[in-house]
Amino acid sequence: MISTGGAESAGADTLGDFCRRLDLLREEAGLTKAYLAAHNDIPVGRARLFEILNGRIVAPPRWEIVRAIVGVCLAATHGQDSELRSELLNRWRREHARLWAARSRGGNGGIHPGKLPEQRIFTQEVVSDVDGRTRTVGVVTGDICDVRCAEVWVNSENTEMMMARFIDFSVSAVIRYLGARHDDLGRIVDDVIADELDAKVAGRRPVPAGSVIVTGSGELAVRNNVRYIAHAAAVSAEPGLGSRPISDIGRCVPAVMRRVEELKERDLTVLFPLLGTGGAGGDRREIAVRLVAAAREYLRFTTSAAVSGILFLAYSGLDLAACQTAFRTAGIGLGR
């Protein structure tokens, strides 16, 4: 835990650590990501700011960006002590320079560029206390585009149930794009999943937080062996306030499971991203702990044969670290 607001004091050894400690500084200041994104002193847009704070970057951000973020946070925590603020800002400057020096030597600060470079699947058996049946829970690493081991994908959606634009950096955008039908030039000719979702919620927006709507998977059925998309209202959005994860995000897990059970199928594997940790800016470790705990609870006490396994997607090294923490907290080891 950073108590002084300095990168060096916490030992930021990699780009991932740097981003994580930058986000911890924000948390210590009691500021939301949405607040920073709207602040006049922050010289980048919301999407880029969230990428930086979530560690989804391949190179250190420019110093003027870091200086602005740190400056706003330090003003909130040490507003009356200009000397201390200056000292702490200099620590961040030195750490930022060190990361750029490592990059210029051919390194990237120790973090894998973007996504984790290979897909790995870690699973652990969970025995039901009710029916004695063994099911699995685990983590799959890398880009969701490469996942072919889950028949049900969970889409982290907002309470308006409006999927992200194709060009956005989000799971919702990827699902929408890959599920659409394209012509021979690659242009989208049928927005399959988004259109079905729109039809199912027509006249009922916004939906209650935690609601789940199931649609087909469009072209993902052929490309990734996906049969269903479970759209979970894990993010609430209000005009002028932006978006944020719903307060009890863990309830999305049993809500998804109930919808999957209604499909009347057997032995499905369900893939969850870390809901609400993208554009909504949720804390990945806190959310991972809640989601994994809810998954373990479901697998321990269910009698349904609908689900044989639950996987969590770890796109980046920071996502994987959050999942590992969550599994340890839940008392679950991760095997191969």
Structure write-up:
- By secondary structure, the chain is of the alpha/beta class.
- The protein has two domains: 7-104, 434 Repressor (Amino-terminal Domain); 121-329, Leucine Aminopeptidase, subunit E, domain 1.
- It contains twelve helices and ten strands.
- Strands 1, 2, 3, 6, 7, 8, 9 and 10 form an eight-stranded mixed sheet that branches. The protein has a two-stranded antiparallel sheet with strand order 4-5.
- Strand 1 and strand 2 (134-141) form a beta hairpin.
- Helix 2 (15-28) packs parallel to helix 5 and helix 5 runs antiparallel to helix 6.
- Residues 1-5, 8-12 and 106-113 have low confidence and may be disordered.
